[in-house]
Amino acid sequence: MNFKIATLPGDGIGPEIVEQAVKAMDAIGKKFNHSFEFTHALVGAAAIDATGDPYPEATHKICLDADAVLFGAIGDPKYDNDPKAKVRPEQGLLGMRKKLGLYANIRPVATFPSLIDKSPLKNDRVEGADFVVVRELTGGIYFGQPRGRSEDLKTAFDTSVYTVDEIERILKLAFEYAEKRNKRLTIVDKANVLGTSRLWREVAQGMEKDYKHIEVDYMFVDNAAMQLIQWPKKFDVLVTENMFGDILSDEASVITGSLGLLPSASIGLETSVFEPIHGSYPQAAGKNIANPIATILSAAMLLESLNLLEEAAAVRDAVNASLEENFVTEDISKESAKSTSEVGDWIASKISG
Ligand code: IPM
Ligand code: MG
Predict the structure, then answer these.
(1) Tens place of pLDDT for every residue, the chain, 353 residues?
(2) Residues surrounding ion ligand 2 at CB below 5 Å
(3) Which of 71, 85, 153, 283 has an alpha carbon 20 to 30 Å from 33's alpha carbon atom?
């Protein structure tokens, strides 16, 4: 079959890691007789430099026209250190999420048996940990109005907003994930303090009766941050609002041993976007040292979304083989580190067989 894939490499290590995922997909195309037509588009600081806009209309059109989007990373220290910058690369990512209606970010966290010793946590805590973070992605404090500064610039404010419809939509997806998995759903909020969290709880309690066979539990976010690290195995599906999901999913990545391993899927109303959960890692940009696996596994999630299940499994198998054979980048093995492109080539040739 023929598929149109938009590739948005973005900033920092984005171009290097996306290139490796494209190699893996090309190998899949050859092996399984598909053709993936890749169209590159600009986003983030790279897009600001070229057009002044972090998510240009031309990029949006390419995404809308694609069967799926493969995304690298966004962010540049030039902007991080300039709080007064009028246009920021992150606005490109947020603009893309809003315009494509990417309301749910799915972040699976599972330990790799071959990497169990790389986790900073004790083996018996992390062995067999396997859960999914479902993060709401287009609402909450990331987007709520009003936001900004007072006239005298002495006060800044952000607003967290959620509607019943937004909450229902994300909770429905989370219940469905729990249904496909181990039938346990943890709803994370701060209902002891925030009105939006109390609305989440109200909506969730109303939905429980439609999912009687799912075991639901409610957890405050501070407690969840602690339990995730202490008892990662007790989680199956964890659903939460935008900001809490951002923080908890970075925390969860520690369980697997490297942030460079975790993929994600952002499910959209128009099209879906697949991206590693890590950022643009500017210190490594252009050095060919970053771990491409999170992006290659994001490509596996992309293939699953196109219903190419055998193809996705072939990508996962090749990634697992590289980890088992310790053919890995420096974040996983300092002693015998391979470069980004060496790992990408190895995985692509493993797929080709
Ligand atoms: C993520 C990132 C983004 C976010 C940043 C780059 C705006 O941290 O995708 O988790 O906060 O959502
Ligand atoms: Mg984040």
Answers:
(1) 899 999 999 999 999 999 999 999 999 999 999 999 999 999 999 999 999 999 999 999 999 999 999 999 999 999 888 888 889 999 999 999 999 999 999 999 999 888 888 888 999 999 999 999 999 999 999 999 999 999 999 999 999 999 999 999 999 999 999 999 999 999 999 999 999 999 999 999 999 999 999 999 999 999 999 999 999 999 999 999 999 999 999 899 889 877 889 999 999 988 999 999 899 999 999 999 999 999 999 999 999 999 999 999 999 999 999 999 999 999 999 999 999 999 999 999 999 99
(2) 246
(3) 71
Regarding pTM above 0.90, the answer is: yes
142 is catalytic: yes
Q: Is 281 a catalytic residue?
A: no
250 CA distance to ligand 2 middle (Å): 6
Interhelix angle 293-305/309-324, rounded to 10 degrees, is 160
**Helix (H) or strand (E) segment spanning residue 290:** none
What tokens does 149 get?
């500064």
Q: Please tell me the number of the ligand nearest to residue 74's CA.
A: 1
Assign 147 to helix, strand or coil: coil
Q: What's 1's DSSP letter? A: -
Token pair belonging to 129? 């940990």
C-alpha distance from residue 252 to each of 34, 176, 243, 301, 336 (Å): 35, 21, 14, 19, 26
For residue 214, give the 3-state DSSP assignment: coil
Are the CB atoms for 31 and 236 separated by under 8 Å?
A: no
Distances 105 to 24, 175, 187, 300, 323 between C-alpha atoms, Å: 23, 14, 15, 15, 26
Report the SS3 class of residue 194. coil
- Which residue CA neighbors atom 5 of ligand 1 most closely? 90
Q: Are 293 and 344 in contact (CB under 8 A)?
A: no
353 to 92, 158, 201, 326: CA distances (angstroms): 38, 52, 50, 18
Q: What tokens does 224 get?
A: 């969840």
